[in-house]
Amino acid sequence: MIHVKWDRETLHFPVPPPETKLGKLRTDLAEYTHLPLGSFKLIHAGAVMKDDSAPLTAYKIRENSTIALIGGHSLPSMPAPPSRPQPKVKEPPTEKSTITAIRTELDRVRTTLVPDVDALVSALAPSVAPTVSSPTSAPTPTSGSAPAQSFSSTAQVPHFPPPHTMPASYSSKPTSSDHTRLSELLLQSLLRLDAMHLAGSDWPEARAERKAAVREVQGVLDRLDGAWLAR
């Protein structure tokens, strides 16, 4: 079976034949969910699946793969930075400004989502300490935890307030709504990173920055889902 995460549901479908096109899977999901065909995106392993003419093997879809279906309904949104006066003429993005945007998005995840993921994981398995480090430190991983990830950067990024009032620790076991909300916010961050414009091969540094950011956010999402499934 393959698994499709949609809102608070997880749908299960037989593994399609290897030659099946992505467009066929998208159409089947639209019919099953009654969502307009162009109203949602499909994400697998941190990447948006875009080419409907490509076979599923191109996206490494296999047994027990998990695909996220995003769109077609209202999702909780990350807090937006304070509004600023917009210039009359918007300048095209540069590699430097794109790198700053990538680092800002990653900092937003680290400061507003990672602490809550740590709290949820600890509440599900109190004997396992959180393993995602802060941007300036890299603690030694404890037994049974994934390797800590670190990121060094001199870019100045704004501080974003927490998107909700989730406690730093739980007095009781987290609920499925806690897991779903954090999962959706992390998926939205992956979508924002994917949507950032990169000027082909002319911006190798920005491309490397985005790849590293996607890998880190996907790692947080995998840790969240893994702890929830193992509860």
Task: Describe this structure as you would to a colleague.
The relative contact order is 0.15. The longest helix is centred in the C-terminal third of the chain and has 26 residues, at 204-229. The model is unreliable at 132-166 (pLDDT under 50). Helix 2 (95-112) packs parallel to helix 5, helix 3 (114-124) packs parallel to helix 5 and helix 4 (176-195) packs antiparallel against helix 5 (204-229). 38% of the residues lie in helices and 10% in strands. With 231 residues, it is α+β, with helices and mostly antiparallel strands. The protein has a five-stranded mixed beta sheet, covered by helices on one side. The protein is globular and about 45 Å long. GO terms for molecular function: adenyl-nucleotide exchange factor activity; protein-folding chaperone binding. Residues 126-148 have a biased composition (Low complexity). This is BAG domain-containing protein. Residues 72-100, 126-179 are annotated as: Disordered.
Uncertain ranges: 132-166
Instruction: Identify the strand order in the major beta sheet.
Output: 2-1-5-3-4
Portion of residues within helices: 25-40%
Number of strands: 5
